[in-house]
């Protein structure tokens, strides 16, 4: 069995693996796709001390850094269940292929995924004008026209954030009213370069083959369709944590995120969590790495107290 088994090979899992392995304890990482969301990212400009990098390059560097240490990497493996430790003191992770892996401590770092609109053109123009992270990609649209899809807290926050950078923001909400907190709505409505459209379904992302040029939405009250010309579309209809396989086993927030304390401890002793899958706010690479490092150290600390 492992002393530390990390489930998830994104920035959080890679950081946890390096911190654990550097303590000389038996460390394993299992991941559906080593690299995680970073693999789907183009330009990265906020990975502090690295002015610019690209997702696939950073993912390869994560893997080669982990491989500097004696870490067992089990790539292309999907965890389907966590069975908390019984009398033998070993937690069990069951895999889709029928196998299972045991460990004294577990670090859950299975990340999250952005909910997509499912509109034609969305996939085609992903990273070519269709974006999901305003903290990451907002500055790329400086002086340009953008839309934010979604009028919940994250959509309205994104629209306020973008309005300070871009030329114009059109906020499109499906419901007949915004769902964000009133204080955020008031702030948004006070901004001069914002248009709010409610009862609207985005039906298509338009582009010229290389980049986004607009979108089409349907007014749900009249069924009329309208075209908005723009350069960027931020989809903010939810970030879904990859915890479906943990429901009923570990404490999750109402949004399905793993509840963690300041040390990354979960509701199960010896099981820690880090990164986008947890309740820790702001889903970013540097934050996931910091949290993963903390979880690695916490797992080590837990082990030395077990005697
Ligand atoms: P993830 O990167 O999501 O990794 C999760 C890992 O868990 C993966 O290896 C996955 O395969 C694995 N996994 C999931 N479920 C299972 C399972 N059941 N069994 C086994 N393995 C599983 N952040 C920035 O800081 N700057 C940026 O510029 C930036 N741009 C982004 C652009 C895009 C398009 C996207 C999608 C995200 C971007 N982000 C950016 C956010 C950043 O990628 C995430 O915050 C970060 O990757 C989170 O790391 P993580 O390790 O917590 O999770």
Can you tell me about this structure?
The chain has 307 residues and is an alpha/beta fold. It is built from six helices and 19 strands. The strands form five sheets. Strands 1, 2, 5, 6, 7, 8 and 19 form a seven-stranded mixed sheet that branches. A five-stranded parallel sheet has the order 10-17-11-12-13, with helices on one face. α4 (153-163) runs parallel beside α5. It is elongated and about 65 Å long. It starts with a strand and ends with a helix. Flavin-adenine dinucleotide binds at residues 7-13, 30-34, 36-38, 40-41, 44, 46, 78-79, 109-112, 114, 132-133, 136, 242, 245, 275-277, 283-286, 288. FAD binds at residues 3-18, 266-276. One of its GO terms (cellular component) is cytosol. It comes from Novosphingobium hassiacum.
Associated small molecules: flavin-adenine dinucleotide
> How would a crystallographer describe the biggest sheet?
7 strands, mixed
Structural class: alpha/beta
- The sequence of SSEs as H and E is EHEEEHEEEEEEHEHEHEEEEEEEH
Q: Uncertain runs with pLDDT below 50, 5 residues or more?
A: none
Strand content: 25-35%
Overall strand count = 19
Round the Cα radius of gyration to an integer and report it: 21 Å
Number of helices: 6
What's the rounded overall pLDDT mean?
A: 97
Distance, first to last CA: 17 Å
How helical, in percent, are the residues?
10-25%
What general outline do the C-alpha atoms trace? elongated
């Amino acid at each position: 069995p492992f002393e530390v088994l990390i489930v998830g090979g994104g920035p959080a899992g890679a950081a946890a693996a390096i911190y654990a392995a550097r303590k000389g304890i038996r460390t394993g990482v299992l991941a559906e796709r080593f690299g995680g969301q970073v693999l789907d990212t183009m330009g990265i400009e906020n990975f502090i001390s690295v002015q610019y990098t690209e997702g696939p390059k950073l993912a390869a560097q994560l893997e080669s850094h982990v491989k500097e240490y004696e870490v067992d990497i089990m790539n292309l493996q999907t965890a389907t269940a966590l069975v908390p430790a019984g009398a033998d003191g070993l937690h069990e992770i069951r895999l889709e292929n029928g196998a299972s892996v045991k460990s004294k401590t577990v670090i859950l770092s299975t990340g999250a995924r952005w909910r997509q609109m499912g509109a034609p053109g969305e996939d085609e123009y992903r990273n070519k004008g269709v974006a999901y992270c305003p903290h990451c990609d907002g500055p790329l649209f400086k002086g340009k026209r953008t839309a934010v899809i979604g009028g919940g807290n994250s959509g309205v926050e994104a629209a306020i954030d973008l309005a300070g950078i871009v030329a114009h923001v059109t906020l499109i909400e499906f419901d007949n009213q915004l769902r964000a907190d009133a204080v955020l709505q008031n702030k948004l409505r006070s901004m001069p370069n914002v248009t709010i459209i409610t009862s609207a379904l985005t039906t298509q992302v338009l582009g010229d083959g290389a980049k986004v040029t607009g979108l089409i939405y349907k007014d749900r009250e009249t069924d009329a369709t309208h075209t908005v010309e723009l350069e960027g579309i931020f989809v903010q209809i939810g970030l879904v944590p990859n915890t479906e396989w943990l429901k009923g086993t570990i404490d999750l927030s109402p949004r399905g995120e793993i509840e963690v304390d300041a040390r990354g401890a979960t509701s199960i002793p010896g099981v820690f969590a880090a990164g986008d899958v947890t309740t820790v706010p702001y889903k970013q690479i540097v934050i996931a790495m910091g949290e993963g490092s903390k979880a690695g150290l916490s797992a080590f600390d837990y082990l030395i107290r077990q005697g």
